[in-house]
Amino acid sequence: MTMAAAIGLVVLGLVVLTLGGDLLVRGATSIARLAGLTPAVIGLTIVAMGTSLPELVVSVIASVDGQPDISVGNVIGSNIFNVSMIMGAAALIARLPIRGQVVKLEYPVMFLATVVTIVIARDGLIDRVEAGALLLSLVVFTAYMIRLARVEATAAEQQDLTVAAERKVLKGKGAEVILAIGATLAGIGLLVAGGKALVDGAVRLAQLAGWTERVIGLTIVAAGTSAPELATSVIAALKKESDIAVANLIGSNIFNLLGILGVAGLILPLQVSPAMLASDVWWMLGTTVLVFLLMFVRKSLSRPDGLILTGTFAIYIWGLLR
Fold first, then answer.
1. Cβ pair 11, 223 in contact under 8 A
2. N or C: which end of the chain has fewer CB within 10 A?
3. Cα–Cα distance between 169 and 184 in angstroms, integer?
């Protein structure tokens, strides 16, 4: 396989992953609505986690195929990319006011998940017991968020969740169930095919370019699978919807650590390379702390903060590739 073919396979995989993720979310959302679930439940589960489906599929496939550096690197790289590059880019577009809920609940959970992940990975392995604990933590957190949405959410927040869910519902006359099931199955198929193409292309690209699978996982794969988060946050910033721009990224990071490492580690224990433990996990923690400090000082993220965050990401990539 030539370099051009490997790059083409990576791009094809990303496109198919994006299409598959959108189809699966639309199909699952429609099934959930037909089953009588409320928009709040759908918005906080299927829709909220939908942008992280590419990361989930890629990490699981890479783990099963014996490429743990791509599997774990995808999660760590995505988290660094989310809170530095994407959040920084969103702040450069428009000032992002930070609401109390983000600082009081969502950020602390992200920070705690980051610290716990580093602690359990310190021996170079995330085993099935540790992965199960991560996944259980996500279930508990999601259940709490649903309860909070039902009890404390304002009318405006309830409306936002309803709109988010309605946007994903498939419209069809007389064949809603068939349409929803078909979209769900097609989405799953496309996700698997796209994930396999991306992993195979990334592995070959690493071999041809002389890069390690760790570097490919932390850069091309992580940035590529974070494309849905990038699109969602940039569009939200352009529309002045700061809550969506910030919450989308923090929620994605929580799901990446607790959900993706949880699922992938349950299927097959995940090896964490010494290089990641020596450098990348600390960059992940550092960018997590940095974004909190910037949010806490001014209760918002402005253009200077965006420059700091994107500059930090550039420094990380420079150090990784030099």
1. no
2. C
3. 12
